[in-house]
Fold Succinyl-diaminopimelate desuccinylase.
Amino acid sequence: MSTHPNEAALLAMITGRADELAEITRDLIRFPTINPPGDAYRPCAEYLGERLRKRGFDVQYIRAEGAPGDTDSHPRINVIARYEGGPGPCVHFNSHIDVVEAGEGWTLPPFEGVIRDGKVYGRGACDMKGGLAASVVAVEALLDAGVPIPGKLEISGTADEESGGYGGVAWLAERGWFSRPRVDHVIIPEPLNVDRVCIGHRGVWWGEIETLGRIAHGSMPFLGDSAIRHMGAVVEAFEERLYPRLADHTTVMPVVPDGARTPTLNINSVHGGQAEPQEGRLPSPVVADSCRMVFDRRLLIEEDLEAVKGEMRALLDSLSQTRSGFRYHLRDLFEVRPSMTEPDRPVVTQTARAVQQVLGRPAALVCSPGTYDQKHVDRIGKLRDCIAYGPGILDLAHQPDEYVEIEAMVQSAQVMALSAWALMSGGK
């Protein structure tokens, strides 16, 4: 590992900035960057950009014009700040600035950034404004350590990760912002615990199945054909044929938790027949002529997306052959292929070594059961040297009273600083 010449002073400097780390996180939480619809993106991006501009970064604000959700009232604003050091590689820290809605059940204000008992509370504290703050402190400490920067440093705050990243990293990757030669290594500070290096994620296919029937009077259902009953047959086929097959597959991906080491299928919703009646009103007596199911199929690195789709269509086609009147439509809604960075890539090995150095224990290499913006860096940017590493506990994301521990932010900032230095110095 290419060690920093003032390593002890660098780590001590970051430890001494714990209060500043908490304040940056608090400031970021106070921008209610709720997506959808995409509120407060510009002021949040400008807060980050102005801070880094004062430290010598070249700052650009980039609107993802034409991306889903981009409007004049809710522009998809991204900020990218770059520091030109020496001739070495570029290390890019990418964080999304959007958060999900607060929802119910909070005991603390979700957008005030309350600091209590060594934690910063608020929507986005864990996912992932605490990680963004840690990356800022990490690079600022490197600048203040009194040693010339051997490569380039970038920090970005990007839009819309919570809705697929199409107004953020995907849009930017299509235009070369996450590709060589501009960028060599990407670290995404998602909340996966300070002792874990996340090297990838499962894939996903969201689809919709619609079963078709024939409307009739509810008192004479034999004159119609219930689409809901046909959908019941689909669910039964899942239970008897598909779920057992999925349980038989295992993966080399180190996915956490263990239950995600097999492919999974979740039924998100089922809607059939007429809309639910308003309070005080009764429904009309009709046989449902349509029923729709939205499903969420998660894929392993060993699976082929087209083969997975073919398996689903074969199951539905078999029902068409064996069940009288069964007709269906199958529609694609969203898809992401699995992504996994090779464990011997420099961004993996150097970050894992930094974890060992800071925490005194080995880093666990894991994969995420869901997806995050690595998919776009890999699939669009064609950049394999990408991981997720950051403070926070993933289980707290999107929950009421979400928080991030200040000590974890300090530790992750130390890991980020050490790994960035090693990577800029050409560490393998």
Remarks:
- The CA atoms of residues 105 and 231 lie 34 Å apart.
- The two ends are 7 Å apart (CA to CA).
- The mean pLDDT is 96.
